[in-house]
Amino acid sequence: MQRATASPYLHPGASVAIEIENREVGAVGELHPEVAANFGIEVACAVMEIDLDALQELPRRRSRFREVSRQPLVRRDLAVVVAADQPAGQVLAAVEKAAGQDLVSVELFDRYAGSGVPEGKVSLAFRLVFQRADRTLTEEEVTKATDRVVKMLSHRFGGELR
Question: Are residues 39 and 87 in the same domain?
């Protein structure tokens, strides 16, 4: 999960805190211009900080493996408008759960706020990849899974397709 960072050495509009299991374990973003100037840095500079001790204290998760499929995969991109203060990580986790067992991956590939998106809202774009090991998925199966995700986004997050 990610949220705006409070790290004073990072630019407030171009940085995020990194959270795992509701625990902050780091931050990433652009170095604050005043901090950069104090060190004589004249170009934009990215900084990433990870608390390795905090990572070590997190519960271990069992690795999950899936058979490599010879069947074709199907990609679907969805852009949904949600409240700007809604953590993208929560939406991503809900999408993964709602998509069903044929989902092999989901990624958040865009976050946009600006022209065309209402004030106080943000557009999140997800790429869903579906595949089975034993056979090719039908268009109907993929559409059903995608519709299930869209319905969940609407009910749980008040999301609207963009």
Answer: no
What is the tens place of the pLDDT at every residue in 19-36? 888 888 999 999 999 999
Domain that includes residue 34, residue range: 2-57
Q: How many CB atoms lie within 10 A of CB 107?
A: 13
Question: For residue 99, is it within any domain?
Answer: yes
Contact indicator for 87, 157 with CB cutoff of 8 Å: no
Q: Domain total for the chain?
A: 2
Query: How many other CB atoms are there within 10 angstroms of residue 1's CB atom?
Result: 18
Whether 1 shows a pLDDT value over 60: the answer reads: no
- pTM beyond 0.85: the answer is no
Strands in the chain per DSSP E: 2-4, 10-20, 23-31, 46-50, 74-83, 103-112, 121-130, 160-161
Rounded to 10 degrees, the C-alpha dihedral 112/116/119/122 comes to -30
- Same-domain check for residues 52 and 81: no
In angstroms, rounded to a whole number, what is the distance separating the alpha carbons of residues 81 and 159?
Answer: 5
152 and 93 together in one domain: yes
